Amino acid sequence: MHNEGTTTITAKRLTLALCAAGAIGGAVGAVAVNHNNATAAAEAAAIAAPANGTPVAATPAPVAGNANAVGLPDFTKIVSHNGPAVVNIRVVGNAKADPRVQMQDGDDGDGQDDPFFEFFRRFQPQQPRGGQGHGQGSGRNLVFGAGSGFIVSPDGVILTNAHVVRDATEVTVKLQDRREYRAKVLGSDTKTDVAVLKIDAKNLPVVPVGNTRNLQVGEWVLAIGSPYGLDSTVTAGVVSAKGRSLPNDNVPFIQTDVAVNPGNSGGPLFNTRGEVVGINSQIYSQTGGYQGLSFAIPIDVAVRIKDQIVATGKVQHAKLGVVVQEVNQGFADSFKLESPEGALVSNVERGGAADKAGLKSGDVIRRVNGQQIVGSGDLPALLAVARPGDKVAMDVWRDGRTVQLSATLGNANDKPDQADRDSLASNAGGGKLGLALRPLEPLERRQSGIPSGLVIEDAAGAAEAAGVQEGDVLLAVNGKTVNSVDQVRDVVNKSSKSVALLIQRGGDRIFIPVRIG
């Protein structure tokens, strides 16, 4: 990994490591694991396991000499009460050889540039067992993995992460009392990383399920799982943030500083009342191990997915049909917003829910169903808990005023129509911006499918500094479609601090703020 001193988080600088990917867990020390299992079983024998999922709260430890002070919470009751409902999951599967794994064998000299390189180098088992080696036959290997889970129904329904059981041909669940069961995967949802398992058993202990509505930043939380195959491991920390948006994810994650390592994936996150509030899922790491940034799927999202899988065997997700990006100070100045908040719509899917509701490129979504949209990631996170057919009321900033729109959400499984080519655009103009512009030729319009705009032949000064590139197509400035240099110049001259340019770059449309003041 490159050691770059910067606070910017990118894929290459900060690896988003899955806690217990299918290729992890085959190299843990068997002696240590067996010893810990035996100890846990002995302790569990002296404790009556819960039969109904009734929550047991943590008790604050007393502070000597100060009757009003509250010390650190004592999690022993939560662990003894709920520990028997937390399970270890072992998987075997015929997984396709991953090129990122092959890099550790020297197959790709450029492996150090892959953000997952360090992670797979450290935690991939030394060699596949029982299958074909790299580059032989079908290129598939027998892969061993491990993770955690927890029982939510006395008849053996278990929640875990989808990535724990991905490509699994055999799943084994081990209880705290050392009993083992072959598990069936009822279904999994890769979009939320939730999977539901079922074992053939009755009268099992279950965890009490809470919700995240009352969970507060700074609140103590507890994780139980099997990091590196060490069963019934307990770690604790605090909630660092709620509704955290991560790259390529639509889940409003709970961020904590609880120590989560490979093997913890799928395990429960408890609040101080002994209720499950999340499923430990991901960590940010430059080493593959815990570095203080852990992320859990809210239990509200997981239960919604579980209910769909148990009822129908599949999952449906709602879709608004927009592409959004962050509103920074430059955009706020351009669109005359009081603060840089909201989700800026850069593209609208033709025929989708947003299009039917009247949303346009250049709109800024400020509220949905009364809930404020601060960052662009808040929108997909909010939609993650919605269902197709749900109606949403939106407060949208357009042309310097708030507009109320209502949309009926579509189904994410439906195929999208052609992207709306007629949406609003943004522009950048002449000398102030440092752009050399020319109109699109008729042939360029036909080949690109772009009906109007200006080709950027050169970018310098403020535009270059903002990230505008030669070859981009300028579609609009501050929401005003532009087809001539005069139109660009006119909008720029009426702007004081910055302008928002809508750029077509390849197949993507993006807004770029350019400061001109």
Give the percentage of residues in beta strands.
Answer: 25-35%
Q: CATH fold name of the domain at 318-411, please?
A: Pdz3 Domain
Report Rg.
26 Å
Mind telling me which CATH architecture of the domain at 318-411 this is?
Roll
Mean pLDDT comes to: 77
Helix coverage percent: 10-25%
Sheet with most strands: strand arrangement? 10-11-12-15-14-13
- pLDDT < 50 stretches: 1-51, 97-138, 417-430
Protein name: Probable periplasmic serine endoprotease DegP-like
Domain PDZ: 309-400, 421-507
Active site: 163 (charge relay system), 193 (charge relay system), 265 (charge relay system)
Binding site for substrate: 163, 193, 263-265
Description:
One of its GO terms (cellular component) is periplasmic space. The active site is at residues 163, 193, 265. Residues 414-423 have a biased composition (Basic and acidic residues). This protein is α+β, with helices and mostly antiparallel strands. 18% of the residues lie in helices and 33% in strands. Among the domains are: 318-411, Pdz3 Domain (Roll), CATH 2.30.42.10; 430-515, Pdz3 Domain (Roll). The chain has 13 helices and 29 strands. The longest helix is centred in the first third of the chain and has 16 residues, at 30-45. The protein is elongated, with a radius of gyration of 26 Å.
